[in-house]
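To the wet lab folks,

You asked to see what we're planning to order before we commit. Fair enough. Below is the target structure as tokens, and below that is the sequence we designed to fit it. If anything looks off to you, flag it before the synthesis order goes out.
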């Protein structure tokens, strides 16, 4: 198997963004302790890095397409294609991470709820990606 570099970058960067977001949620829920004096800045920086990973991974996905101008077609087959579902879930997850970062930056109290929605979307993105790899015959 010789995957294209864009696929390697896509998978690695999006996975890193998902992992960092889940780590931030674990910290916010109290599983891991962070000093309260630096917590707000820590979350803002972590959210920004996670979002940067996700955006860079999305940009890398466009290099994998043969015809990037037809990328919108990837959404059309969402009932049959796990790739289409991934294309739908990734921007939703990115928007949720961005709103989670905004909630931390402005001090809004909705950050835990936004984070919980983000966790669900993150898990949905993991499932979509896993199902894509399960469908590939040479990986079975």
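Sequence we intend to order:
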């Amino acid at each position: 198997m010789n995957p294209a570099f864009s696929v390697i970058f896509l998978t690695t960067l999006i996975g890193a963004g998902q992992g960092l977001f889940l780590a931030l949620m674990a910290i916010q829920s109290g599983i891991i302790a962070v000093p309260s004096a630096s917590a707000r800045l820590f979350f803002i920086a972590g959210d920004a890095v996670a979002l940067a990973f996700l955006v860079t991974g999305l940009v890398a996905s466009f290099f994998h397409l043969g015809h990037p101008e037809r990328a919108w077609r990837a959404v059309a087959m969402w009932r049959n294609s796990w790739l289409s579902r991934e294309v739908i879930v990734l921007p939703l997850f990115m928007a949720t991470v961005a709103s989670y970062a905004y909630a931390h930056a402005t001090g809004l109290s909705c950050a835990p709820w936004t984070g919980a929605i983000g966790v669900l979307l993150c898990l949905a993105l993991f499932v979509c990606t896993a199902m894509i790899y399960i469908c590939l015959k040479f990986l079975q």
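Structural context that might help your review: Residues 100 and 114 are 6 Å apart (CA to CA). Helices lie at 5-28, 39-64, 82-106, 111-135.

Thanks,
Computational group
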